[in-house]
Amino acid sequence: MIEMLQFDFMQRALVAAVLVGITAPAVGVYLVQRRQALMGDGIGHVALTGVGLGFLFQTSPVWMAVLVCVLGAVVMELVRSRGNQRGDIALAMLFYGGMACGKLLVSVSAQAGSGNLESYLWGSILTVGPGDLATIAVLAAVVVAVTFGLRRQLFAICQDEEFARVTGIPVRVLNLLLAVMAAVTVTVAMRVVGLLLVSALMVVPVAAAQQVTRSFRATQAAAVGLGITVAVLGVAGSYQADVPSGPAIVLLAIAAFALLGAVAGPLARRRHRAAPDSGPEVCDVVLPAQSAGREAGRTAEAPDREGASTGRNGRRESEPSAGRGLAQ
């Protein structure tokens, strides 16, 4: 472990892994909460067009991918919000069209080559340069600031959009902001785990953490901690075994999910025996009271702990405890 830290490229790789380990689960917890776990996969398809444009115009593929991903994510959110019956067809064309266009652009660019494209499809963390690391750090800082700074508002729209709208929360703006943050996260993680695997790092740590935690705040913290752990161990293990880092990170995350799943049942039974009459915990995310929904806000000032959410009529509705997921 100490030996590999002597190399500059490994130092950059580990820093990039930590940043991705933070950002991917931080956004993924909201996507899982609103049952959009595969959104990152779709954005990854669109990001390939940005990579192709970067190769074609000989500019930074990362920044071009950010621009294309943001546009694609906005289109995806607008299609979802309209609830059009043909929306799934439109999204499918967007996803596959983005991948096909990216491959075509890469093939006609001066930097054409399967090696260039492979590094973005499956990740190539050992080739992260100082400029790439600076870009990843800036984008990661933006994602962390939004996902943690607006946690109460984002939780509210993921839990119940109609109730959030009644309390005066700008639902449309926050939905678009969450989609943009997912797009930025995809571009942050594509050099580490690749566009084809980025969705796994956004979803699997969250799903694993949900099995042993009982609150939204704890789930987010545990998912981020797990994301950092598997990212760092995956990079270190891939260096020692001389295997690609992206698949190694994802397989470690899946192994962690299986391990926590094995202990989730006994842990839940132990908690039940320790406090059989305590009932479920309540939500630890306090929804912001807004002037437009002051009357509803007074009756729904809670939830202040995860496990109970406020229904649309202002009454508290109990949520299931750990192991059954926060999105149920």
3D structure, described in words:
Mean pLDDT is 79; it is low at 278-282 and 290-328. This protein starts with 7 loop residues before the first helix and ends in a 10-residue tail after the last strand. It has a two-stranded antiparallel ribbon. It is mainly alpha-helical. It is built from 13 helices and two strands; from the N terminus they run αααααααααααααββ. The longest helix has 30 residues, at 245-274. The chain has a domain at 4-199: ABC transporter involved in vitamin B12 uptake, BtuC.
> What is the highest CATH level, the class of one domain?
Mainly Alpha
Major beta sheet summary? 2 strands, antiparallel
CATH topology of one domain: ABC transporter involved in vitamin B12 uptake, BtuC
What structural class do the secondary elements suggest? mainly alpha
The fourth-level CATH homologous superfamily of one domain is ABC transporter involved in vitamin B12 uptake, BtuC
Q: Indicate the proportion of strand residues.
A: under 5%
Provide the helix percentage: 55-70%
- Radius of gyration computed on alpha carbons: 21 Å
How many DSSP H or I helices? 13
Cα end-to-end separation: 41 Å
The total beta strand count reads 2
Order of helices and strands: HHHHHHHHHHHHHEE
CATH architecture of one domain: Orthogonal Bundle
Residue runs with pLDDT of under 50 for 5 or more positions: 278-282, 290-328
Shape: globular
Spatially, the strands of the biggest sheet line up as: 1-2
Mean pLDDT: 79
